[in-house]
Amino acid sequence: MIAKLSAIQSRAYNTVFVEQCGLPGLLERLPLRWPTPEGTPPSPKRRYRSHYRYLGYDDLLDPKIWEHLSDFEVALRLVDFDRLRPVLAQRLGWTSARGYIPFDPVSLFLLQGWQITNGWSRAHTLTQVRHPRYADLATLFGFENDLFPSEGGMRHFLTQLGRHSETGEPIQLEVAGKTVDIALQGLNELIAQSVDLIRQADLLSPQAWDQALICPDGMIHDAASGLGCGFVQESCYQPTSSDAPRPCPAMEKERQGCACDTAPCAQMCHFTTPRDPDARFIVYQASNQPHRTTDGTEKKDKKGEPRYGYRSLPLQLSDPEHRFSIVLLDDFQPANEREENPSTALLLQLETFYPDLKLDAVAGDAGLGYDIFLSTVYQLGAKRVVDLRSHQTDRDKVGWTLRGYDNKGRPLCPFGYSFTTNGFDPQRQRRKWCCNQACLKNAQPLVSLETVSYPPPECPFQSPDRPHGKIVNVAQRFSDGSNRLVRDIPVGTPAWKRLYHRARNAVEGRNAVLERWGLKRLPVFGTPRGKALVFQADVWLNVTTLARLVRQATLTAYSG
Question: Which residues contact 93 (CB under 8 A, 6 or more apart)?
């Protein structure tokens, strides 16, 4: 029996990958230049207190140097970041050359990338960059003459990136008869440009881009502020008076709250977190599926992990051949808000950021199993590989025969026999199901009805001229108008498991890296800084993935 290869071993045995993505194969394409979108105006600033310049990759030609460089340091040699300057100037909201002389935004971007990938604080980062040991890195960042930014300067850079992230008209979604506005995040431009670097290096397999598996999922980030009250909401931050008393959502739920009748509570409740006003409390549960009790009944599992903070919502692309994943887009919101609406908006933005990306499937957990998300995936021509969202009607087995499908989305006949899938038509985007006259082949019904004798003699699909019996085509919805359980690949089949597990590996891999970088709990206060930090982390996740794969291919080429 052949042992299952790890991802590193699989790439090492891929001769095309090694030859194409190792340093010898990349030399003609180096440096990889940061892509500046057409029409981007130059930075309005004419002078800087630092100045980034690409210093080449010559030291990478020595095979021994790879052992001593981190992925971040390899990336500084593979990528020329000079063209990032006008992009950052836009994201920082610079419109004039007047005012103070700033540090080169590329220098600050690289410095914060170094901080993020090492999981350091701002203070420690600034201490380290001043140390003679890291003089070479300071030079690569563009700092000269022992002139470095302050903690306040780094904090200001982060704040400005976050404040100027929302750009343009929001995406409007029609949800349950209401219009929901989803803001566009300009910081997604940085993520898309990091993806372009990966494509410049030909790291993605053709299948990954032409039959794309998109993996949306959320990650909870605890706020830097400590939890004061689990029921905090926007009104808690508003002033109160005897004429217009502030409502207390905790007391309305018969929990201990605050009467807000003291001077400290006049402007905002003292249980709020003013430096993280958008942070919210949530009891995080990994699944919405019910669990069985000892007496065989089902009930919703109320246990979960209490969290207070924010949620990032990345869209990831999984490469099944080269066995890695990258972040395509992201969003950032309070922890208690639902995922399906912003995730839907991100799907709709894929064509703008990646016009040549060809969707094949979208895989996600049950939190995305709502009409707006499932319908959008279908309209984009992709297969829905979203985990099933349970509902109380799924417990009524007799009701399955009336609505025509079971709790897994498999069609049933009125007599309780389950259908067999007969293939998927990609042109019509529908899956064909047939009963195959199961009632005449001694099959047991999935649901036995007391009023029916088996096999049912009244079934009109038992004649020999109908060898497949009853045929049902399921496209976007079932005949009752519901799409909650409609899936283009039957749940639980090997094809379903392969795609779903691949997606889970991708999202868990990203979450593990961000947790290793210290971002499970945000080290900064407020939505603007938290958003800018997480978006930059996704950029550096892509860029360091590029460096890591080039390193693996290079060392394999040298050893071979």
Answer: 160, 163, 164
Vertex 251, ends 249 and 253: CA angle to 5°?
Answer: 75
Q: Residues 138-172: pLDDT tens digits?
A: 999 999 999 999 999 999 999 999 999 998 889 99
Q: Integer distance in angstroms from the first to the last C-alpha of the chain?
A: 25
DSSP track, 153-174: HHHHHHHHHHHT-B-SSPEEEE
Q: Which helix (H) or strand (E) holds 177?
A: none
| 105-118 helix and 151-163 helix, angle to the nearest 10 degrees | 100
Distant-in-sequence, close-in-space partners of 323: CB < 8 Å, separation ≥ 6: 7, 10, 11
- 481 and 374 Cβ atoms separated by less than 8 Å: no
What's the whole-number mean pLDDT along residues 364-377?
Answer: 95
Q: Which residues pair with 425 in a beta bridge?
A: 430
Q: Which residues pair with 292 in a beta bridge?
A: 298
Q: What integer pLDDT is reported at residue 203 of this predicted model?
A: 95
Whole-number Å distance between alpha carbons of 65 and 209: 33
- Could you report the per-residue pLDDT of 417-471, keeping only the tens digit for each? 999 998 999 999 999 999 999 999 889 999 999 888 888 988 999 988 898 999 9
Tell whether 80 is covered by a domain: yes
> Using an 8 Å Cβ cutoff, are 443 and 417 in contact?
yes
Domains identified in the chain, total number: 1
**Residues contacting residue 158 through CB under 8 Å, at least 6 positions apart:** 112, 524, 528, 529, 532, 533
Q: Which two tokens stand for residue 477?
A: 């919805």
Q: Token pair for residue 322?
A: 């080269």
- Enter the tokens of residue 123: 């203070």
Q: Do 372 and 339 contact (CB within 8 A), yes or no?
A: no
Q: Answer yes or no: is pLDDT of 288 > 60.
A: no
Residues 6+ away with beta carbon under 8 Å from 469? 434, 435, 436, 437, 438, 461, 462
The torsion of the CA quartet 127, 132, 137, 141, rounded to 10 degrees, works out to 60
Helix (H) or strand (E) holding 208: helix 206-210
pLDDT tens digit sequence for 61-115 = 998 899 899 999 999 999 999 999 999 999 999 999 898 899 999 999 999 999 9
pLDDT value for 302: 54
Confidence band, pLDDT 50/70/90 cuts, at residue 30: very high
| Residue 539, in any domain of the structure | yes
Q: Three-state SS for 198?
A: helix
- Nearest to residue 269, comparing CAs of 256, 254, 259, 255? 259
Q: Could you tell me the residue range of the domain that residue 544 belongs to?
A: 7-168+524-559
